[in-house]
């Protein structure tokens, strides 16, 4: 698909560094921690957590857009089942992030987000990576370079990811937004930065998302009125007919029926963030026949982002859910070794 091609090409455009080369390009204690943490091949507690500042907010027709900034830091892109570490460089000024939400529910909306920041006859242009972090959940981001402190205009383009919307009212047209933000290097450096206790780093688990547990929010006011600060996948109770919650590696997949519509809602453990931009299929085995169908990326304000397809079921069938391609999401520390498995699990429908 087009966005996955963009994700692959982005690796070549932005460049990466081998682990051995990270200390040369990053020259930071973040790179050193990457080496000293014994990372499990699963979700783990990262070495530190970062605060963030809100730079701009837009209430558009069909979505809410918010821009955030934090200190620059490294991350990993994903191509198929392989990861590539993207270097943080001395020239990087901030880690720029965008959140796109469905206005009524506050749920995460898959999109393509492009940012252009003009300055001094030049410009910083980025298609932000679809990303996942334990503090911010699913978002779009990249490290960017700015020449110095000051007020900057920016053009932000939000494009639909081309997924199915079960409720037509949640569809949105592409939007172009002119915003302005104040870049103050001292303010970015002053953002909260907490190094976690050594006995927690690298252990299975996750830190709490922004806005959960302590009433916190991004500096500048990132709280979305009426919604939690970070969107999570719906609870099992939100599905009318829950069939099974299966696992493939660290992916949790809630399988349910809504009438004749088969749903696979894939999410992270611990924080329950939706896992986007994967490929899933369902094989339905009946007496004497077997059918395989693709589960399409879909959005519903009640069910959130999920994978689904209409099905014709009589009862008693064996259903096998397969992850054909794992989530093609860039990841921050704590997620870069997880959600890379292909695999399947099965369930049998009641008669």
Automatic annotation (TrEMBL):
Give yes or no: UniProt keyword Glycoprotein: no
InterPro entries for this protein: DUF7350, Metal-bd_Tp34-typ, Tp34-type_sf
User: Compositional bias of type Basic and acidic residues: which residue ranges?
Assistant: 211-226
Q: Which UniProt keywords apply?
A: Signal
Pfam families reported in the protein's UniProt record:
DUF7350, Iron_transport
The DUF7350 domain covers: 254-347
Asked if the Swiss-Prot or TrEMBL record annotates the protein with the keyword Isomerase, the reply is: no
Ranges where the record places region Disordered: 196-229
Q: What is this protein called?
A: Fe2+ transport protein
Lineage, top ranks: Archaea, Methanobacteriati, Methanobacteriota, Stenosarchaea group, Halobacteria
């Amino acid at each position: 698909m087009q966005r996955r091609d963009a994700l692959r090409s982005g690796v070549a455009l932005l460049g990466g560094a081998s682990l051995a080369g990270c200390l040369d390009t990053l020259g930071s204690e973040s790179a050193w921690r990457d080496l000293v943490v014994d990372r499990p091949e699963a979700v783990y507690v990262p070495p530190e957590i970062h605060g963030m500042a809100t730079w701009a907010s837009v209430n558009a027709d069909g979505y809410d857009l918010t821009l955030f900034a934090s200190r620059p830091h490294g991350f990993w892109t994903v191509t198929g089942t392989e990861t590539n570490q993207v270097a943080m460089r001395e020239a990087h000024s901030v880690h720029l992030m965008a959140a796109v939400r469905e206005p009524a529910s506050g749920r995460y909306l898959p999109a393509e987000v492009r940012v252009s920041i003009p300055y001094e006859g030049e410009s910083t242009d980025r298609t932000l990576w679809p990303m996942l972090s334990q503090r911010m959940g699913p978002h779009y981001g990249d490290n960017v370079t700015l020449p110095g402190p000051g007020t900057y205009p920016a053009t932000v383009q939000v494009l639909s990811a081309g997924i199915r919307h079960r409720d037509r009212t949640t569809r949105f047209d592409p939007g172009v937004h002119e915003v302005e933000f104040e870049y103050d290097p001292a303010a970015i450096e002053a953002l909260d930065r907490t190094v976690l206790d050594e006995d927690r780093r690298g252990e299975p688990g996750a830190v709490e998302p922004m806005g959960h547990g302590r009433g916190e929010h991004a500096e500048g006011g990132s709280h979305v009125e009426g919604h939690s600060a970070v969107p999570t996948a719906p609870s099992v109770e939100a599905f009318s007919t829950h069939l099974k919650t299966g696992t493939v590696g660290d992916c949790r997949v809630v399988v349910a029926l809504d009438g004749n519509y088969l749903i696979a809602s894939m999410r992270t453990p611990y924080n329950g963030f939706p896992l986007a931009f994967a490929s899933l299929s369902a094989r339905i085995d009946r007496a004497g026949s077997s059918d395989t169908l693709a589960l399409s990326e879909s959005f519903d304000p009640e069910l959130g982002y999920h994978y689904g397809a209409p099905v014709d079921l009589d009862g008693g069938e064996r259903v096998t859910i397969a992850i054909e391609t794992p989530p093609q999401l860039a990841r921050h520390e704590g997620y870069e070794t997880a959600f890379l498995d292909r695999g399947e699990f099965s369930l049998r429908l009641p008669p």
